[in-house]
Design goal:
Distance between the termini: 40 Å
Helix content: 25-40%
Order of helices and strands: HHHEEHHHEEHHEEEHEEEE
Strand content: 15-25%
Number of strands: 11
Low-confidence stretches: 276-285
Mean pLDDT: 93
Shape: globular
Radius of gyration: 18 Å
Oligomer: single chain
Largest sheet: 9 strands, mixed
Structural class: alpha/beta
């Protein structure tokens, strides 16, 4: 009965996404004030800073980086493309995969100009902002594929999509809690995703705290699992990850722009256990 209820909930979530509009979603979440690169307390610069630190601390390395549930966005791999020679993007929705392909195939493609994002990450890396064209070229060079994914399947990608050993690193932003009907489904999806990662590989996870819905287009209200920090930590442990670091961002009032009810954002750096068992290694919470 529980399995049937889970499947029904997952199917209902998939139906919610039929009206998802990448252009509207990008406008809601990836323009000012949420993407104001002049403000230190703006949400997008905070996320980019977390990802930059994680990718440059020296322990995240290898050949293959896989982005789980990319949506129509690229910001989450702008630092990783300097560390990994191969990047694979994934999403459940064809409209999102097409949005990413438009950018990949044309410098003018896509619904959002990613130039300010590229410039900001160049500055984080100590490079001149004008180096953004080099970073854009590098990103296009290392993205190997844009694949369909279903995190609710025990094998989220086609069996031959990745090397048998798995990816060296996974990044995932605002995906699992936004496509799961409840907390058990979120945890189970995290366990499915874990199978794509080699033992000892890293997970960089960004997600919403206290969010029960967001708008994927005008009038398209999509339910979200409202997570708290303890639930995130418990789900990671149950799914075979060791938590390295958890950071939390609290939205200023003017970042609450009416397109969702999110109160905060979490960033997790975790490692898949060699034995497949979870636990807390260097468990740090930063606020």
């Amino acid at each position: 009965m529980d399995e049937k209820r889970m499947q029904t909930g997952v199917a209902a979530m998939a139906a919610c996404y039929q009206g998802f509009d990448p252009a509207a979603y990008l406008q809601y979440n990836y323009t000012p004030p949420r993407a104001d690169f002049e403000r230190k307390d703006s949400i997008v610069p905070w996320k980019l800073g977390c990802l930059h630190r994680a990718f440059t601390e020296g322990d995240v390395s290898g050949e293959l980086l896989v982005d789980i549930g990319s949506g129509p966005t690229l910001y989450q791999v702008l630092s990783g493309c300097e560390v990994f020679n191969t990047v694979v993007l994934t999403d459940f929705l064809e409209v999102n995969r097409l949005e990413l392909k438009r950018w990949l195939q044309s410098q003018e493609g896509g619904s959002l100009d990613w130039t300010p994002y590229l410039q900001h990450v160049c500055k984080l890396e100590g490079r001149r902002p004008s180096a953004w064209t080099e970073k854009a070229a590098k990103l296009r060079q290392v993205i190997r594929d844009i694949l369909p994914i279903d995190v609710h399947r025990p094998q989220p990608l086609d069996p031959d999509a990745l090397p048998a050993a798995g990816a060296d690193c996974l990044v995932s932003c605002f995906c699992l809690e936004s496509v799961s009907p409840d907390l058990p489904a979120f945890t189970r999806a995290l366990g499915h995703v874990q199978k794509l990662l080699r033992p000892g590989g890293h997970l960089l996870l960004i997600g919403a705290l206290g969010e029960s819905y967001y708008f994927g287009a005008p009038g398209v209200k999509i339910p979200v699992v409202p997570l708290n920090e303890a639930q995130v930590c418990d789900s990671l442990k149950e799914s075979g990850f060791t938590l390295i670091r958890l950071e939390v961002y609290t939205l200023p009032q003017d970042m609450r722009v009416g397109v969702d009810d999110v109160t905060g954002v979490f960033f997790v750096k975790a490692r898949k256990q060699q034995s497949g068992r979870g636990g807390k290694d260097d468990d740090k919470v930063a606020k």
